[in-house]
Amino acid sequence: YHSLNPPLPPPEYYSEPPDSVHSRVTAAAAGKKAQARVVLVTGAAGFVGFHTALQLHAEGDIVLGIDSFNNYYDVRLKRKRAALLRRAGMKTLIEGNVCDGDLLKLMLRAGRVTHV
């Protein structure tokens, strides 16, 4: 059971310029162990994405998350899930739309993603 009332991450955890996204994604991938996967999880602050990201991170994979934090579901709940992911040690969750081709290419290439 995870408390849904952790402190929220600082604003820079979410929206970032491309250079910042590139440096964070590259840094995350650089910490990869030989057998670890680098997994891009879309909708990482949603219900399924959140639990998937937690499990992959617990298994030792490098998890790069992306979420648009749209209002299809309660945004406050998504922000709290993002805080839980950060507290669990997942350091790279980018606020952005997976339909943004440039952002997606940047994350896939800079992060050396092996699985989506």
TrEMBL record:
- Pro residues compositional bias: what residue ranges? 1-12
Q: One short Pfam family name for this protein? A: Epimerase
Occurrences of domain NAD-dependent epimerase/dehydratase (ranges): 39-109
The UniProt entry, under SUPFAM superfamilies, shows: NAD(P)-binding Rossmann-fold domains
Name the InterPro entries for this protein. Epimerase_deHydtase, NAD(P)-bd_dom_sf
Q: Which PANTHER family match?
A: EPIMERASE-RELATED
Name the family. Answer: Belongs to the NAD(P)-dependent epimerase/dehydratase family.
Identification of the protein by name: NAD-dependent epimerase/dehydratase domain-containing protein
Origin organism of this chain?
Haptolina brevifila
